[in-house]
Each structure stands twice: as C-alpha cells, then as structure tokens.
Amino acid sequence: MKVPNDKMKKTVFFDRDGTLIVNQHYLNDPEKIVYLPFCFEALQLLRDQGFQFVMVTNQSGIAKGIVQVENMHEIHRHMLKRFGEHGIEFAGIYFSPHASDSDHEMRKPNAGMLLQAARELEVDFAKSWMVGDNMSDVEAGRRAGCRTILLAGGDLSKDSKFAKPDVEAPTLMAVAKAILANAGQPSSKQTP
C-alpha cells in the first residue's frame, strides 16, 4: 500500500565513520567512540526542523573478521544512548557487512540501505539528504534520489568517478545549516 505524500518524512541519512564519529578504521570497541565536533548541536538543529535521522554504514570489517557483529551492535547501542542524552533519536540504523569489492546492493555506493529504510520508515526522498565523508556515500544518496552532502570532502570529489555532491561542507554544523537553507526546495531528482 502506498503511503500518502503528507505522511512521508523528510530524512537525513548519515554515514557513521568519519561523519558522526571519528573514523578509526574498523572500530570494534564501543569505548573508543569519538564524536565529531558539533555532532549533537547540528543534529539538534535538524531535529527541531522535523527531520528524522537514519544511519547507513558500510562495515566491511565484519566480512574481513576484524569487527564482530556483536561489538558493532554494542557500538550502535552506545551511540543511540549518547544521542538520546541530547534528545536525538535515530529512526533506524542499517549496515552492510559485505566485503569492499562485493558490489552488493546493500553496500554503498549502491542505494540498498536507503531504499530499505524508505520502505520501512516512509521516507520522502525529494525532501531528504544523504551526508557522508566519502563519494560512495554521495553516490548512494544520488542513486536513491535525495540530495547529497560531502562532509569535509575537499579533494575527494575532484577525481571521483561519481557525480559531485550537491554541497560540500567542512563541519557537521555547516551540514546542518546547508540543509536548513535548502529545506524548502525539494530535490528535482527522480526516485528509482
């Protein structure tokens, strides 16, 4: 059954490592989580404007045997608790445990995680954003039909085989301000 448009939710999809928390390459210990500057303040601004949040994260360390699934879930529980202490909720967390070279539909740059979230969480891609620190994040958002932001990307978008992001931002606070500045302008991209 198709959800009426007025029930669809504007959503910000966030990558995890390098976007919400410091990328520590195969984080396997919840005690080592370090949040990026302005993380909580930026998400509070977006929350106050009615955005729902979804985390979509590639976790190839699971396929490599470097990260244990139980530890990843514990990391996510710690993160949800810390975000909750700041009045921030995530509607969902989706992860891809597939190897880097698998081209699995659920692994970014493919849009599988975003599309699954859309089915389960009533996402309006025309009013939604994908935020990440890699061009594979940007491409996943583009393929899903939402606008995209490359966080602290700098040179990452220049030599990429993927289309440039809609916005490049140096901090999460700049991400939030860019989203809010464009919130009233739905994307012209087509949802698959």
In short:
By secondary structure, the protein is α/β, with parallel strands linked by helices. Helix content is 32%, strand content 15%.
Describe the structure.
The protein has 192 residues and is an alpha/beta fold. It has one domain (15-181): Rossmann fold (3-Layer(aba) Sandwich). Helix content is 32%, strand content 15%. The protein is built from six helices and six strands, in the order E-H-E-H-H-E-H-E-H-E-E-H. A six-stranded parallel β-sheet has the order 3-2-1-4-5-6, with helices on both faces. Helix 1 links the parallel strand 1 and strand 2 (52-58). The radius of gyration is 15 Å and the shape is globular. Mean pLDDT is 91; it is low at 188-192.
Q: End-to-end distance, in Å?
A: 17 Å
Helix count equals 6
Number of domains: 1
**What percent of residues are in strands?**
5-15%
Taken in chain order, the helices and strands follow as: EHEHHEHEHEEH
CATH architecture: 3-Layer(aba) Sandwich
What strand line-up does the widest sheet have? 3-2-1-4-5-6
Mean pLDDT: 91
Overall geometric form = globular
Oligomer: single chain
CATH third-tier fold name: Rossmann fold
CATH superfamily: HAD superfamily/HAD-like
